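Here's what a typical entry looks like (UDP-glucose 4-epimerase):
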Amino acid sequence: MTWLVTGGAGYIGSHVVRAFEDVGLDVVVIDDLSSGHREFVPGAVPFVHGDLLDTGLVEGTIREHGVTGVVHVAGFKYAGVSVSRPLHTYEQNVTATVSLLRAMAANDVDKLVFSSSAAVYGTPRTDLVTEDSPVAPESPYGESKLVGEWLLRDMQRAAGLQYTALRYFNVVGSGTPELCDTSPHNLFPLVISALVEGRTPTINGDDYDTPDGTCVRDYVHVSDLAVSHVAAARRLAAGEPLAPVYNLGSGTGLSVREIMDAMVRGTGIDFQPEVRARRPGDPDRIVASGGLAAQDLDWAMRHTVDQMVRSAWEARRASRD
């Protein structure tokens, strides 16, 4: 059985590819390299440089490599930027998913693991988000991910698609120094880049209704996330039932201040972050329960915050050597 990993040259996708290799499952990667890196894909893994909007290319890849299931990680993942680029966001996250599903249907591929987002919840009404919490996305990015979930639901009804969608918040760390998060928007690379360049990291607001005044969020290690993608794929391949959505959450969360303190410990660079004004719309706390995924998808928080920071720091330093 061969699995197609879309976006497999990206930060999360490349870890998913390695997790498949670790259990002896064959994979092939499609990536347009708009944010991914060719060198992130292991040399033995077939790589197709192309856009999911090219349905013919996707169909050809599926046929050539005997693909029987898909892990759909590719997408435009910047919620803040999506507000100013809604059309691009919908094209990359919705239209591209339609193209992928069309190619799958044309080749009788009926198994899909979808990389969704906890952004579908918007600002939760409760401190702990579960799969039953109301969805109310507040950005084109969150909306596009929710539409993606609807597309899968509708294809299940229409054509028997077997799928599950995995929702998560902040993905951090590295499973190997060869792979690092190069996003210009995520907290870990922003802090690490500031330290590498001799600048002072910043905190946006310290007057929230939380124990230390800074926002509390889920931070999950990318390797833990990858394991659950593979677990979902294997259950689909075995014909075992899965819920339509799972939260890959910590259940407890970490504050931005706690992340900064861990950065001091993990990097060995002593600093005091600069506190700036709040960003509009940032909730005090958003944390998801991972209980359901722990039952079905081998989900667990296997890494401490210090391990998350150290692995991210080591990967960033390796990328500069």
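The mean pLDDT is 95.

More examples are in the samples folder.
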